[in-house]
């Protein structure tokens, strides 16, 4: 049987990973968090004191790096870095790493390789528009910046991270701008993607909207 590919795209904090993980379980398929891959490269840059503005250095490092996503774990050169990639420092630098075309080529190769091996649901920014333009199903999740910021704020404060709500909202807006305006494979809704506004909706509601389209 042909592998199933489901793309879940949208801006930061729209609920993509939460929804994608549940759908993956429901359908018994693999889940790939493509944002985690860009975060892992960013983490390695920071660990190695690479200046993110120095594109050539970032590209060189990315070429010497092994990234994988398996069983809900992100691997950086063979080590699981699930926690480290969520730091505020990584979050505020990742969009500038993800805008580098050569870095994207490397990550997209890994994503396509995994996607052609198994049935998968991938969450990201360019999955339906660039990585898998022929995906079986494409969804584009959106929500207001205030709602997205509040969700991130809740996640962070529950983990004990001290932040201001407005700073989290501002950071999300800034990342959206960088992600949407980059030249290569920007954050964009694929023409044939189904848009779901998750503002004010429960996780269950959104999961059901997605599953109803698939089944
Ligand atoms: O989904 P996230 O917040 O973990 O994504 C981190 C960053 O990576 C985000 O700023 C945009 C970028 N990204 C991307 O450019 N393309 C993807 N397919 C996934 C994420």
Gist?
The chain has helices spanning 16-27, 34-47, 55-63, 88-98, 101-117, 127-131, 145-158, 165-181, 203-214, and strands at residues 5-9, 30-33, 67-70, 73-76, 79-80, 120-124, 137-142, 194-197. By secondary structure, it is of the alpha/beta class. Strand 4 and strand 5 (79-80) form a beta hairpin.
Output the keywords.
single chain; 215 residues; alpha/beta; Rossmann fold; five-stranded parallel β-sheet; three-stranded antiparallel β-sheet; 52% helix; globular; binds 2'-deoxycytidine-5'-monophosphate
How would you characterize this protein structure?
The protein is of the alpha/beta class. 52% of the residues lie in helices and 16% in strands. The chain has a single domain (5-199), classed as 3-Layer(aba) Sandwich (Rossmann fold). It contains 9 helices and 8 strands. The strands form 2 sheets. It has a 5-stranded parallel sheet, sandwiched between helices. Strands 3-4-5 form a 3-stranded antiparallel sheet, covered by helices on one side. The longest helix is centred in the middle third of the chain and has 17 residues, at 101-117. The protein is globular, with a radius of gyration of 16 Å. The protein binds 2'-deoxycytidine-5'-monophosphate (DC). 2'-deoxycytidine-5'-monophosphate (DC) is lined by residues 12, 34-35, 38-39, 94-95, 98, 124-127, 175, 179.
């Amino acid at each position: 049987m042909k592998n199933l590919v489901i793309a879940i795209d949208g801006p930061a904090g729209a609920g993509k990973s939460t929804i994608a993980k549940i759908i993956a379980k429901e359908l018994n398929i693999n889940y790939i968090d493509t944002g985690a891959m860009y975060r892992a490269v960013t983490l390695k840059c920071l660990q190695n004191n690479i200046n993110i503005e120095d594109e050539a250095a970032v590209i060189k490092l990315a070429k010497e790096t092994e990234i994988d996503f398996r069983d809900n774990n992100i691997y950086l050169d063979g080590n699981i870095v699930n926690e480290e990639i969520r730091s505020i420092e990584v979050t505020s630098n990742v969009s500038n790493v993800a805008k580098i075309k050569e870095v994207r080529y490397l990550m997209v190769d890994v994503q396509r390789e995994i996607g052609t091996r198994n049935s998968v649901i991938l969450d990201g920014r360019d999955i339906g528009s660039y990585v898998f333009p022929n995906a079986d199903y494409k969804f584009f999740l959106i929500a207001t910046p205030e709602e997205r910021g509040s969700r991130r704020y809740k996640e962070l404060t529950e983990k004990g991270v001290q932040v201001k709500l407005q700073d989290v909202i501002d950071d999300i807006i800034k990342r959206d701008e960088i992600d949407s305006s980059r030249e290569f494979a920007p954050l964009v809704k694929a023409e044939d993607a189904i848009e779901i506004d998750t503002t004010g909706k429960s996780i269950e509601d959104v999961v059901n909207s997605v599953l109803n389209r698939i089944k």
